[in-house]
Specification:
globular, single chain
Length: 147
Amino acid sequence: MAQANSPGRGGKPRFPEDEAFRCLRAGEIGSFHKAIAKREVADFSDADLRGADLRNADLSKVILRGAYLRDADLRGLDLRHMDMTGCSLRNAKVSGAYFPANLSPEEIRLSVEHARCLNRKSYPVARPLSWSVRHFRDLWLTRPACC
């Protein structure tokens, strides 16, 4: 559950007193990996990671729930195992990133373009055009011969 000071709830992002967090925020990926090597988990929930370059970071031990990721570089990251509820991705670089299956492309787009927190509200997702074309083609092929 997100804390009351969560960015997704109108609070300010937090700056954990954590060496691994400091390294990650500063872009010192090697030092970050050393700092979390012997830990089971690094809780950066509701943390301010704005502008952080996370491209080469192994985030498998990191909790990012509610994190403030504005202008962060997430390109190429595999985030499928992450709980990204409440994260804000405003202007983040997300090209090539794998997101959790429960996040729709539309929800990610709204977060990147309009700073919407992820999973706070469900957004309608339009069917892809290819579905419509295939659907109508199948209807045409199965129509009665008299038409």
